[in-house]
């Protein structure tokens, strides 16, 4: 049971945990809700580690496969399995959830049980997205995540939260329903909802193009790519810290994952055909959104725009069709999960103290909070892609891959090293250095043990990935090579 | 004529009709304090009918000189009708008692309506179909006007009656033309003659148009939907609950028996008409629902859009489509039952929870009801992992399977429009502060039943596969 159902356990353990936590009821039992939430988050993290240990990196085949009949009449099956790409994203999910639970420990005081229950439920369905090998199962997990996120932003978010959360929901919903029609069309071509059968199914160019566009509607909104990115700054700014972390660290990755699992292998010819458009959109995100980030006055908004720019790098890596680009894109996704999560947590630390996210309300934070300033310095440098941090690995590989295709791609992408450093470090300078701006800043207290714990855990991850990326690259290498052969083989 | 016909196939109908008369008489003699007797008798009637239906499920065929058909489809639909009515009675009892409406008439009229629907479900003849429809309609007119002192209810009943009578006229006129061309009232024979005559006969098409208009009136499709919002809004919630759920099953029976059972030879013609009706209903229903401030009106427009969606399954004229439409109707009635059930549970003596604002801050007043309503709303919106999603999935699947991809895209886009107003309820319940703090009504039994009702919608459950299989089997038995 434990051996053969490892993926099911990773999916359902947090969902059951969410129900248990929700059952603790009102805020009188908040302490119990927190304890149970942490317990289930840790258990889930522990349940995903064996996946890494037992993973066979030598094969590109799906591993830990589970396959059961579900709705026989329409050949919908409960089919799970992972390759190297999904493995890393699953680990990122379970790791981030633990940090989110810890980060919300003291900050969330109203409707504590519902808050943690929503996050645990979301963890389960996000892991489900990365495990699903049946298109309908995938879609169910993909959409099931919307409702808890809708509630998280709307219930615990900032002042304009209702507008932001409805925008978030409708944007993502409109993209996904078009994908649903494409999935059903593929079902009639392939005779089942098996994603691997979709990948093997020959398709004409016209059909491929339409399917590619339908997938694009879903994934581009999630990533988000320019010009459908406008929901993200709103959602990020209004979401509570934990919500921002999950949004940035995992939810955006689901879009990237979608490109890898669906667009490239199912519609390879259309992907090549439209690669120019995709690269152009990605470069617009990298350059233009990088400039937009420069002028932001709200720290969260700045990091949100920085996320869009970094995700532009990811999609650029995917659509240049070489190993460096793909591996770089995937590494960038993982790294961005750590770094942007960490930066949102840093902003959260400041916000908990002064209840402001405006850069101009801060200045000279380094004096009262030296420890915090050191951590934030580290993450700011990682965000600008300093060698030795995880941010460097992905950007370096993608630029390397881009060079093989066109020098101009590489040059345009390379500007991110300048802009990224500019907007991140300039923000850092205005917030942390300089004279102490006002008495509130002077009265700040440095981070406590709890905050130290989650920042240190992320710093360790960023450093590990930056200095020794081999364990990460080894796991994905075979899967990426297989994906590349699929993406380069014509289906016509 | 000397021989007594075998009445066994119609035993459930007879039993319910007899019991309705018995309740009417018993109710005269019980004191107002012990009105629960009528309630219990009505519930027992439904259980009895269910037992008889299950007992007789093995007999199938056409009886009473081609008037009455017993097949797996009729068994499935009848059982659904009993179950829904059971829930409707249980939800309504307290509401009716608080408003001094707990009288035998409610149950008697509702049971006569049930008989009408049972006859429709088993109809294989224009006459029986019309008879059942009129029995149902007359019961509904009276039920809407049931709260005598309410001006809105009376107005709604008037509108319903006038428009309903006109629709019946249209339907009859169409039927008479079809009779004129085919020379038969029996649906199976009409089907054969239509196939022989061909689909290009002018009178036949005229007859079809009138029949479709009549059906569209009864089902409530745009542009024949005007009565729906007024009736849903004006009737007492207990009656809205009834109208908003069970007759939808009868609507399905009406469509499937008439258009598929009798006039499938004309499917190329009616499917074009239904495309127009369906697209208009989904579009207009979803858009106008956004502007509503009364939840009963909002759910009325939502019902219009859902009827349009169900029609998408019918209009592609394939067995997969009919089966998806059947599954859609069954799940929709469960969702609608739950949604009106919550409206009933939240209302109390002298207070109707019908304004959208009455849902403000429900999460703070009762997290459980808020959660159930959340489930119902996202299921109506068609968001996974609820059953509303699977219903939409099957319909869209049948559309794509018959090559109507553009219609599928249109349908999913309007689904997103629809998601907005369902989400607004979620927003009111979770993000806003409550306007009042009075305790939530609803006894333990209602709470329990609504919980079952709403949790049924969690689509992870394996039962979905079973229900889809039943729907498939029932539709297969038609051909």
UniProtKB/TrEMBL annotation, chain B:
It is a multi-pass membrane protein. It catalyses: a quinone + NADH + 5 H(+)(in) = a quinol + NAD(+) + 4 H(+)(out). Residues 123-416 form the NADH:quinone oxidoreductase/Mrp antiporter transmembrane domain. It is found in: Cell membrane; Endomembrane system; Membrane. Keywords: Cell membrane, Membrane, NAD, Quinone, Translocase, Transmembrane, Transmembrane helix, Transport, Ubiquinone. Its EC number is 7.1.1.-. It comes from the Bacteria. InterPro entries: NADH-Q_OxRdtase_suN/2 (IPR010096), ND/Mrp_TM (IPR001750). The chain crosses the membrane at residues 14-32, 44-69, 75-92, 104-121, 127-146, 158-182, 202-227, 239-261, 273-291, 298-319, 325-347, 368-391, 403-423, 448-468. Its main location: membrane. One of its GO terms (cellular component) is plasma membrane. Pfam families: Proton_antipo_M (PF00361). One of its GO terms (biological process) is ATP synthesis coupled electron transport. GO terms for molecular function: NADH dehydrogenase (quinone) (non-electrogenic) activity; NADH dehydrogenase (ubiquinone) activity; quinone binding. NDH-1 shuttles electrons from NADH, via FMN and iron-sulfur (Fe-S) centers, to quinones in the respiratory chain. The immediate electron acceptor for the enzyme in this species is believed to be ubiquinone. Couples the redox reaction to proton translocation (for every two electrons transferred, four hydrogen ions are translocated across the cytoplasmic membrane), and thus conserves the redox energy in a proton gradient. NDH-1 is composed of 14 different subunits. Subunits NuoA, H, J, K, L, M, N constitute the membrane sector of the complex. Belongs to the complex I subunit 2 family. This is NADH-quinone oxidoreductase subunit N. It comes from Candidatus Muproteobacteria bacterium RBG_16_60_9.
């Amino acid at each position: 049971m434990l051996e053969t159902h490892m993926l099911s356990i990773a999916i359902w353990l947090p969902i059951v945990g969410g129900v248990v936590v929700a059952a603790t009821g009102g805020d009188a039992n908040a302490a119990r809700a927190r304890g149970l939430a942490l317990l289930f988050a840790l258990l889930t993290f522990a349940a995903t580690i064996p996946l890494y240990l037992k993973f066979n990196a030598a094969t590109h085949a799906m591993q830990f496969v589970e396959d059961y009949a579900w709705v026989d009449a329409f050949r919908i099956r409960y089919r799970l399995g992972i390759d190297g790409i999904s493995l890393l994203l699953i680990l990122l999910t379970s790791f981030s959830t633990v940090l989110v639970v810890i980060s919300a420990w003291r900050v969330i005081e109203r409707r504590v049980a519902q808050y943690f229950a929503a996050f645990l439920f979301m963890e389960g369905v996000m892991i489900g997205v990365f495990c699903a090998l049946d298109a309908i199962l995938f879609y169910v997990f993909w959409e099931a995540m919307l409702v808890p996120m809708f509630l998280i932003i709307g219930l615990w978010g900032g002042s304009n939260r209702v507008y932001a959360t409805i925008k978030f929901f409708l944007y993502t919903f409109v993209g996904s329903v078009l994908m649903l029609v494409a999935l059903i069309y593929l079902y009639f071509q392939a005779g089942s909802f098996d994603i691997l059968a979709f990948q093997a199914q020959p398709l004409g160019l016209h059909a491929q193009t339409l399917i590619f566009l339908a997938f694009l509607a879903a994934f581009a909104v999630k990533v988000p790519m320019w010009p459908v990115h406008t929901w993200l700054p709103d959602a990020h700014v209004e979401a509570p810290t934990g919500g921002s972390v999950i949004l940035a660290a995992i939810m955006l990755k689901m879009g990237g994952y979608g490109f890898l699992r669906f667009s490239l292998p199912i519609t390879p010819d259309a992907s090549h055909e439209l690669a120019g458009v995709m690269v152009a959109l990605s470069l617009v995100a990298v350059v233009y959104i990088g400039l937009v980030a420069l002028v932001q006055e709200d720290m969260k908004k700045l990091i949100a725009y920085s996320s869009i720019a970094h995700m532009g790098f990811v999609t650029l890596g995917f659509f240049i069709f070489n190993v460096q680009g793909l591996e770089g894109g995937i590494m960038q996704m993982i790294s961005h999960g750590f770094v942007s999560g960490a930066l949102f947590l840093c902003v959260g630390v400041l916000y908990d103290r002064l209840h402001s996210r405006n850069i101009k309300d801060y200045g000279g934070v380094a004096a009262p909070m030296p420890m915090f300033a050191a951590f934030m310095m580290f993450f700011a440098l990682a965000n600008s892609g300093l060698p030795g941090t995880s941010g460097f690995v992905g950007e370096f590989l993608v630029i390397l891959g881009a060079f093989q295709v066109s020098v101009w791609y590489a040059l345009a992408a390379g500007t991110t090293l300048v802009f990224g450093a500019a907007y991140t470090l300039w923000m850092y300078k205005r917030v942390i250095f300089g004279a102490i701006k006002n008495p509130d800043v002077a009265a700040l207290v440095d981070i406590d043990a709890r905050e130290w714990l989650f920042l240190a855990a992320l710093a360790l991850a960023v450093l590990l990935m930056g200095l020794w990326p081999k364990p990460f690259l080894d796991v994905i290498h075979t899967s990426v090579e297989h994906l590349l052969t699929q993406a380069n083989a014509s289906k016509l | 004529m000397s021989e007594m016909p075998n009445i066994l196939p119609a035993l459930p109908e007879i039993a319910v009709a007899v019991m309705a008369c018995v309740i009417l008489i018993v109710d005269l003699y019980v004191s107002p304090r012990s009105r629960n007797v009528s309630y219990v008798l009505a519930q027992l009637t439904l259980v009895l009918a269910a037992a008889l239906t299950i007992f007789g499920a093995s007999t199938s065929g056409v009886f009473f000189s081609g008037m009455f058909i017993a097949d797996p489809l009729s068994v499935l639909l009848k059982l659904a009708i009993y179950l829904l009515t059971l829930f409707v009675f249980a939800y309504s009892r307290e509401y009716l008692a608080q408003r001094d409406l707990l009288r035998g008439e409610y149950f008697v009229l509702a049971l006569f309506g049930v008989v009408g629907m049972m006859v429709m479900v088993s109809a294989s003849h224009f006459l029986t179909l019309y008879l059942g429809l009129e029995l149902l309609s007359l019961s509904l007119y009276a039920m809407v006007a049931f709260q005598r002192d309410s001006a809105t209810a009376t107005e709604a009943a008037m509108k319903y009656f006038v428009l309903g009578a006109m629709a019946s006229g249209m339907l009859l006129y169409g039927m008479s033309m079809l009779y004129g061309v085919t020379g038969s009232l029996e649906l199976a024979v009409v089907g054969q003659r239509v196939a022989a005559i061909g689909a290009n006969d002018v009178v036949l098409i005229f007859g079809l148009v009138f029949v479709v208009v009549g059906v569209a009136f009864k089902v409530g499709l745009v542009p024949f939907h005007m009565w729906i919002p007024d009736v849903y809004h004006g009737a007492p919630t207990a009656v809205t609950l009834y109208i908003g759920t069970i007759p939808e099953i009868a609507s399905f029976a009406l469509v499937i028996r008439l258009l598929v059972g009798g006039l499938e030879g004309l499917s190329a013609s009616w499917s074009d008409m239904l495309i127009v009706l369906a697209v208009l209903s989904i579009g207009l229903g979803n858009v106008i629902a956004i502007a509503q401030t009364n939840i009963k009106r909002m759910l009325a427009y939502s019902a219009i859009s859902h009827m349009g969606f169900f029609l998408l399954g019918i209009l592609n004229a394939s067995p997969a489509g009919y089966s998806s439409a059947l599954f859609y109707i069954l799940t929709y009635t469960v969702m609608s039952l739950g949604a009106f059930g919550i409206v009933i549970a939240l209302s109390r003596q002298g207070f109707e929870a019908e304004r959208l604002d009455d849902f403000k801050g429900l999460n703070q007043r009762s997290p459980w009801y808020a959660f159930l309503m959340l489930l119902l709303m996202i299921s109506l919106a068609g968001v996974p992992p609820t059953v509303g999603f699977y219903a939409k999935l099957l319909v869209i699947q049948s559309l794509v399977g018959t090559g109507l991809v553009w219609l599928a895209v249109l349908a999913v886009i309007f689904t997103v429009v629809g998601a907005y107003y369902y989400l607004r309820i979620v927003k009111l319940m979770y993000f806003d502060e409550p306007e009042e703090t009075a305790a939530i009504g609803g006894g333990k039994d209602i709470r329990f039943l609504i919980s079952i009702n709403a949790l049924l919608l969690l689509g992870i459950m394996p039962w979905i596969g079973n229900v889809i299989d039943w729907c498939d089997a029932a539709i297969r038995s038609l051909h």
